[in-house]
Amino acid sequence: MEEERYEILKDLGSGNFGVARLAKHITTGELVAIKYIERGYKINENVQREIINHQSLNHPNIIKFKEVFVTPTHLAIVLEYAAGGELFDRIYSAGRLSEDEARYFFQQLISGVSYCHSMQICHRDLKLENILLDGNPVPRLKICDFGFSKNALLHSQPKSTVGTPAYVAPEVLSQKEYDGKIADVWSCGVTLYVMLVGSYPFEEPDDPRNFKKNIAKIMNVEYSIPGYVRISSDCSQLLSRIFVANPTKRITVLEIKQHPWFQKNIPKELVESDRKCCKEIEKEKISKQHEEIMRIVREAMNPCPSSTLDVADVDEIEEVE
Ligand SMILES: Nc1ncnc2c1ncn2[C@@H]1O[C@H](COP(=O)(O)OP(=O)(O)OP(=O)(O)O)[C@@H](O)[C@H]1O
User: Fold this and answer.
1) pLDDT tens, residue by residue, 132-150
2) From the CB of 68, is ligand 1 less than 6 Å away?
3) Nearest-5° angle of CA 296, CA 297, CA 302?
């Protein structure tokens, strides 16, 4: 049994689909995060997409996909563990970042996103909650959660309104087909704004839960930088190139990478990893893994006889075995 190779250490939290747990690989001692999703109807197209798209990615700023297996009750997705938690929590507890810190994270975010796009995958749910940090004192950024991702080679052009309201681009709200890569740029802009300002750009400050008003702000690209936040003119110029309603006029990821604000203090390894990762596409290996993953996912779509057990029972099953 695959699960016997891991010792569960603690819960990391729960999401819409299940729980994530910290675990240790028994022979290597490596720490991993395992996401458990109950077998049966919860193993839907999004889960399938998440796994297929995520497994083909290999970049220092993307959480590594390790393996997937089924337990009697759950589908288990094994991922690289990011000990630093969510960037959202860091900003929530420590407040907004300085411009240099925000640039440090933004450079890594764009590096990861640019790599995804080069693999024909758009993320479609980029936000601070889907950005994790590793355990280094100077943390490295790791993009996670590919549940809404689309692969241009496998899937149709995106049309559905997915993502998180505060982060979605105007064209995603329009119910027409849109370019997922360009919509990702908008979400990166919202992420940058939140890092710098500590609040959302398109949110009514006195009425933050008013969905209608917030949507109108997005459609009209109504945002401002509060006076108490000092940012350079290069930085505000970059934001103004990202927050452009017309996706064909919006700055692209490639252009962001050439922008003077982005170029400042750019770490050498970031430029190098960009070059290396794009060379490492082994199509044959990926398609073999793809088939094996589809087999496991199909198996997990069948609820097991004991499917009435809930997630808390995962430990008990392991003990019984
Ligand atoms: N690789 C990881 N390393 C460290 N923590 C992780 C990892 N993956 C997920 N987590 C944490 O585990 C918790 C649950 O994650 P999960 O992805 O299941 O749900 P979510 O992202 O909170 O919600 P949803 O996927 O429903 O939007 C979150 O707090 C998340 O930060």
Assistant:
1) 999 999 999 999 999 888 8
2) no
3) 100
For ligand 1, the distance from its centroid to the CA atom of residue 297, given in whole angstroms, is: 20
Q: Are strands 131-133 and 121-122 parallel, antiparallel or unpaired?
A: unpaired
Rounded Cα distance between 297 and 76, Å, is: 10
The DSSP result for 278-312, as a single string, is: HH---HHHHHHHHHHHHHHHHHHHSPPTTTT--TT
Residues 5, 27: contact at Cβ < 8 Å? yes
Q: Distances in Å between the alpha carbon of 2 and those of 8, 56, 76, 160? A: 13, 21, 10, 36
Is 207 one of the annotated active-site residues of the chain? no
321: pLDDT strictly greater than 90: no
Enter the tokens of residue 188: 């990166």
Ligand 1 contact via 304 beta carbon (within 6 Å): no
Kindly indicate the confidence band of residue 15, based on its pLDDT and cuts at 50, 70 and 90. Answer: confident
- For 28-46, the pLDDT digits (tens) are 999 999 999 999 999 988 8
Q: How far is the CA of 139 from the centre of ligand 1 (A)?
A: 18
Q: Other C-beta atoms within 10 Å of 128: how many?
A: 20
AA identity, residue 223: Y
Ligand 1 in reach of 63 Cβ (< 6 A): yes
Q: Let me know: does 43 contact 300? Beta carbons within 8 Å.
A: yes
pTM: predicted TM-score of the whole model, two decimal places: 0.90
Q: How far is the CA of 13 from the centre of ligand 1 (A)?
A: 6
ipTM: 0.95
Distances (CA, A) of 8 to 25, 234, 319: 9, 47, 11
